[in-house]
Design goal:
The chain has 373 residues and is α+β, with helices and mostly antiparallel strands. It is 58% helix and 16% strand. The chain is built from 9 helices and 6 strands. It has a 6-stranded antiparallel beta sheet, with no helix packed on it. Strand 3 and strand 4 form a beta hairpin. Helix 1 packs parallel to helix 4, helix 2 runs parallel beside helix 6 and helix 4 packs antiparallel against helix 6. The protein is elongated, with a radius of gyration of 30 Å.
């Protein structure tokens, strides 16, 4: 008997894990493709260095997994069990005494392992990768590295403090030919042109200087008495530091330990949101079994629309609860737990309402009453 139970567990796990891997891979590739298009657009616009595109994409993929794994396991269970219902294998298992409760044993074991992995990703790895991603993006916004320039285009850097046009850029992207730059220094706007330019470290080697050769500096406005044109053989402009203050990073980059100690409602909401991922994978596993019940005529995709609708409602409720928590509408102690509890109650209701044995007994009772005189 124990050997038969082990065979059933392995069979169910194999069906679910194969579907889980396929669903996760397909959706993950779709999300990464969309993100890649966005980063390539930023690279073309000079907002991020081209060589950092795939690094940013890899760092973003961790956040996608945290969001994707609960959904993909939920859909995988529904697809796997839907196929078993379609082929009447669940009916055969039920005839052998394998009920709905018995199906939960291998599925919840898999969900617990997935929840442990997801807890590590959501609470430790995702914030660390988010911090690295924000550092790269902030450094790109603050820096005037020549690698960000696109020849033949006017580009704003330093939040509009510099406008640079480079006619040509060397292959190693270290030297500029025919440079035009509009800069604001000490509250005054000035125009600079140079035949050649490159960057160097300053004397303390803590910052960089844009060194221009054989150019002109225009001060003031044409027609004004103080308008001047200065010719120079070599002129340097200090570039602002590209250092990134970690304190100004987004809340998703804050370490979980810091969120735990914080009393700020937005930090508490972020903490509850991170905890929601591993909890959701358990709740969705409880929901997937009753939702997957179909008849052979419905096919394995018979309940897919309802399944997706339940997932959308679940995550919209989590998003709304997070906003209410940030706004102080609900108690911080309550957090997002009430949403998970509500969905567990829904799973219990679906289990009782759609229990095959209960439906069979109801039909027998109805037929008996109809047959009695």
């Amino acid at each position: 008997m124990a050997r038969t139970a082990l065979v059933i567990d392995r069979y169910l796990l194999r069906e679910v894990i194969l579907s889980w891997l396929v669903v996760t891979l397909v959706v993950w590739i779709i999300l990464l493709s969309n993100k890649l298009v966005r980063y390539l657009g930023k690279a073309i616009a000079g907002e991020v260095p081209g060589q950092e595109v795939f690094a940013l994409l890899g760092l973003s993929s961790v956040g996608f997994l945290v969001m994707l794994l609960p959904l993909s396991l939920y859909l995988a269970i529904i697809l796997a069990l839907g196929r078993l219902y379609k082929d009447s294998e669940i009916t055969a298992l039920s005839a052998c005494g394998v009920g709905t409760g018995r199906l939960y044993r291998p599925l919840l074991s898999l969900a617990v392992v997935a929840a442990i992995l997801l807890s590590w990703l959501s609470l430790v790895i995702a914030p660390a990768t988010a911090m690295l991603r924000h550092q790269i993006e902030n450094r790109a916004e603050q820096s005037t590295d020549l690698s960000l320039l696109t020849p033949g285009r006017f580009q704003e850097v330093q939040n509009g403090k510099l406008v640079i046009y480079a006619e040509q850029l060397s292959e190693d992207r270290k030297r500029i030919t025919n440079l035009f730059m509009d800069t604001i220094q000490q509250g005054q706007s000035g125009l600079l042109t140079a035949e050649h330019a490159h960057t160097e470290l300053d004397a303390e080697k803590t910052g960089r200087i844009l060194v221009m050769e054989d150019g002109h500096r225009y001060q003031g406005f044409p027609g004004d008495e103080d308008f001047r044109i200065l010719r120079f053989a070599r002129y340097g402009v200090a570039l602002p530091s590209a250092a990134v203050d970690v304190a100004v990073l987004a809340r998703d980059a804050k370490p979980t330990k810091g969120l735990w100690k914080s009393k700020d409602l937005r930090d508490r909401a972020e903490l509850h949101w991170r905890i929601s991922a591993p909890v959701a994978i358990l709740v969705l596993t409880l929901l997937a079994v009753p939702v997957s019940r179909t008849t052979p005529r419905q096919g394995k995709y018979g309940k897919m629309f309802i399944a997706v609708l339940i997932f959308v409602i679940y995550y919209n409720l989590l998003g709304a609860a997070r906003f209410w928590l940030e706004s102080g509408v609900i108690w911080p102690q309550l957090g997002l737990w009430w949403v998970h509890g509500l969905m567990v109650l829904c799973a219990a209701a679906l289990l009782i309402w759609g229990d095959p044995q209960r439906v069979t007994n109801k039909r027998i009772t109805t037929n008996s009453k109809a047959a009695s005189p």
